[in-house]
Amino acid sequence: MVERRLIYALLLFVVCAVAFLTVNARGNWEFVLWFRGTKLLGISLVAIAIAVSTVLFQTLTKNRILTPSLMGFDALYALLQTALVFFLGGLGFAQLAPQVSFFTSFFFMMLASLALFGTLLGQSQQARGEDMHRLLLTGIIFGVLFRSVTSFFQRLIDPNDFVVAATSSMASFNSINGDLLLVSSVIMALGLIAAWYLRFDLDVLALGRDAAINLGINYKQRVYVTLVIIASLVSVSTALVGPVAFFGLLVSNLTYHLFPTHRHAILLPAASLLSACVLIGGQTILEQLLNFSTPLSVIVEFLGGVTFLLLILKGRSR
Amino acid sequence: MIDIRSVSHALHGQTILSDISVQLPKGKVTALVGPNGAGKSTLLSLIARLQPLQKGTIEVDGLDVTQTPSKQLAKTLAILTQSNQLASRLTVADLVAFGRFPHHQGRPTVEDNKLVDEAIESLELTSIRHRFIDEISGGQRQKAFVAMAYAQDTDYLLLDEPLNNLDMKSARTLMQRLGSLSAQSSKTIVVVLHEINYAALYADWIVGLKDGRLVANGETKYFLTNETIEQVFDMQADIHDVGEHRFVMHYR
Ligand SMILES: Nc1ncnc2c1ncn2[C@@H]1O[C@H](COP(=O)(O)OP(=O)(O)O)[C@@H](O)[C@H]1O
Ligand SMILES: [Mg+2]
């Protein structure tokens, strides 16, 4: 049953992709297809990265409300951008080569996530069951810290530069940099292959630590590997389009709802397809059909935020 | 045999187990008894490598639990822990099927599915096999988790308070099943029990823990004396012989 739904999701994705490429296309077809194709690839990559990282994160934390952005990733991204503006000035920041900006973000994001894992792994001798909670607490505290430092920097820079910082710390699905697509495709492909390889173990990890160990899973190592996958996926997507706080939550819960299964062999591709459909379909409708000026990220985040509230009110945090 | 040698354990500077050495006989049912907080669950979790062993050694069937690959141990030993929370929304059948994971690593065979069905039937869960775990009663949940350990089909089975939440009949059926598992399939079963009379009837061997120490250990009929009960539980109770069995009249 869920397998069939996966096929429907794939068909929907194809429809969205074709619509994205062709609706309102005029003039030089070769140019239009190349231009839109690049954008399609970028949006799909980001969509899949967000979906897979969120599902993995929620499996590890046995929770359906928390997302990687809770670990302070979006806050770190905002901090990095603001810091760049602070040190380079608004003009210097605008002149920065995209690769430099990307790798700066990517590098620091990886570093920060490894620091988080350090706290996770450093206390292996502790009583059991605490690991995940400590990680989450660390993430929340880092998030608050990053935000405070960001606002501190923003007070220091001059108002014109502040505008540059403020816009680049908000997600934009419309301005994905084509130059970065190749390198981020490679990083993301590696992460996705690893996640697929782990799909059965992930099913067991969702049972919790003790059950997973009882069933012969090398728990600590698997959690570590999964966290590294999450970190690289989130880093790439955040560096490509900026922080997206609630979209992952929207997509993962939509997936759990439409695909009622515990099997990651279904959940991972399903979440990826749904995520891509929402972003590509949404972008097509907004841009081509409605001629909307509201960025898609605003609408998606609004829907995600509503989902978040509904989940909290319904008390279905598990 | 489960061979426990000089095992000590401490958490946050507090001693939980001190210098436990005991051998749990192969192919028998061993009951682990003692007051709340005696360290029974801790001892089981150390045997099942759920916590790192701080001091001493534990061997299960000659396999050192700290050295043997976890994958291999999962085919030798299964544990039912005292509290079980799930993240995913699973049906009873899904949960029980996980018991076969050590044998197929995610790709179940026909044989695996057959053993899952058998486990479901033997715990009388057939009528609720497609219900979700978070939508059934506590006792039914407990049975589902027991069935999962059962489906793992290991030579060694550790059960931490498996009778929690079970009604009289289910409790009796489960204890009978454990008895026949050891008698007929020569499985080694270690079970934490609070009702000493279940131990009296179904266990071959009883181990008594108190304050993290081993205070009594022996064949069932030798264990069940006024002195031992007093030593382990700090309470007096009459002992009655009914037929060939001993009962501890601890209700009053
Ligand atoms: N995670 C923990 N942190 C600190 N102390 C613990 C922890 N788990 C258990 N203990 C302590 O260890 C002792 C033994 O606990 P446990 O093995 O669960 O006892 P039992 O199963 O016999 O009731 C208790 O005194 C308890 O307070
Ligand atoms: Mg206990």
From TrEMBL, chain A:
CC per GO annotation: plasma membrane
Lipid bilayer topology: Multi-pass membrane protein
Subcellular location: Cell membrane
Regions that span the bilayer: 41-61, 73-94, 100-122, 134-153, 180-198, 219-236, 266-286, 292-313
Family: Belongs to the binding-protein-dependent transport system permease family. FecCD subfamily.
UniProt record, GO biological process: siderophore-iron import into cell
Record key words, sorted: Cell membrane, Membrane, Transmembrane, Transmembrane helix, Transport
Protein name: Iron complex transport system permease protein
GO molecular function, one term: transmembrane transporter activity
From TrEMBL, chain B:
Location of this chain's protein in the cell: Cell membrane
Cross-referenced PROSITE patterns: ABC_TRANSPORTER_1 (PS00211), ABC_TRANSPORTER_2 (PS50893)
Keywords: ATP-binding, Cell membrane, Ion transport, Iron, Iron transport, Membrane, Nucleotide-binding, Transport
Domain ABC transporter: 2-236
UniProt topology in membrane: Peripheral membrane protein
Record GO terms (molecular function): ATP binding; ATP hydrolysis activity
Principal subcellular localisation of the protein: membrane
A Pfam family annotated for this UniProt entry: ABC_tran
A biological-process GO annotation: iron ion transport
Family: Belongs to the ABC transporter superfamily.
Protein's recorded name: Iron complex transport system ATP-binding protein
Organism, scientific name: Cohaesibacter marisflavi
Taxonomic placement: Bacteria, Pseudomonadati, Pseudomonadota, Alphaproteobacteria, Hyphomicrobiales
